[in-house]
Amino acid sequence: MKSVLSERQTLHPSDIERRDLPESAARAVRHLAAEIAVTVGAGPEIAGTLSHPVLLRHIDAKYGRLPDAVHEALRPPATDAGVTIIRRLDLGDDELGQTPHNWTQAAAQAGDRAHRCASFELDIAMLLLARCAGEPFGWEGQQGGRLVNNIVPTPGHEHEQSGASSTALLSPHTEDAFHPERANLLMLGCLRNPDRVGTTVSSVRHTELDAAQRETLSRARLPILPDVSYGTGFGDGPAPAVATLGSDACRLTLRFDPAYTPLDDADDEFRSAYRHLAAELERVCLTAALTPGELLLVDNDVVVHGRVPFTPRYDGTDRWLKRVNIRLPQRRRDASEAAEDGYGQRVVAPFRTSRGRNR
Ligand SMILES: [Fe+2]
């Protein structure tokens, strides 16, 4: 499989759609987030999971007040590349404090009034922006159900296939591919990225597959197991086979996570088609090295994302992203996913406006 390492220096290629927020609109996001942060007050009961009803009420009541330019910028990616870079929130490095070593510490710092970093306010900004796009949600089994995840390199997890890793290439994957309620959109907000570490994105709509390969990959052949951030041992129980390729309004979609797919269990024909798809996703890979204040909006039904390897610093200045899962209530998924139980993993979805899954 071709390495994406050579693409590390390909910064913000023109194939990635960009939307620049007017300065006044970006300021309005920070201003409203600060106002809500002061009103609800930082504290572990609020900042721990961000699901406190008082905070949720403020988000829901106020995101509609943000300027039209913000709502316009947060619509789903418009091109076949399936990704958009939104520039940029005004962000000072000195307001962040030290990059935490793990997600637990990040949540604790956000809720520590004495710590006085902007992390909690930026969590609120991320929720406001995500609410403009759709319905932000979390997972009970991931980062304590927190609605905004912190992605930081974590000691002892360097080689994992998870957001806590660093020195290992994070293979291109659909976020939470194992689950029928996975996000339609993924929003990554960059707080700090001093070594310009690249996030990789590959659109299935840029790949070249022949009719036989499409047909093979559209059949449910293999399961996708939960990633290590949800725990281990999921391969021991029943694991439903899922289709790799699907369609939405006759346009190609995908569900792909090779690190958690037991490819050796498939026949030669399937393995060959799957490997071709993986090679194509590498061929069409684009790399975005986000800078502080930039947001990357990823269509999780169309695009797989990953990250190039990097050497963690562990000195308080490491790369730090915030991530939000977003459901688009108007989007539908294949009815065949209805029977999946998602390995018992449950969403935390306080903004859900309609019952049921995306179907
Ligand atoms: Fe991911």
UniProtKB/TrEMBL annotation:
Q: Which GO terms describe its molecular function?
A: iron ion binding; oxidoreductase activity
Keyword entries, A-Z: Iron, Metal-binding, Oxidoreductase
Report residues binding Fe cation.
H173, E175, H305
Occurrences of domain TauD/TfdA-like (ranges): 165-324
Any single Pfam family the record assigns to this protein? TauD
Q: Which family does it belong to?
A: Belongs to the clavaminate synthase family.
> What name does this protein carry?
Iron hydroxylase
Q: What is the lineage of its organism?
A: Bacteria, Bacillati, Actinomycetota, Actinomycetes, Mycobacteriales
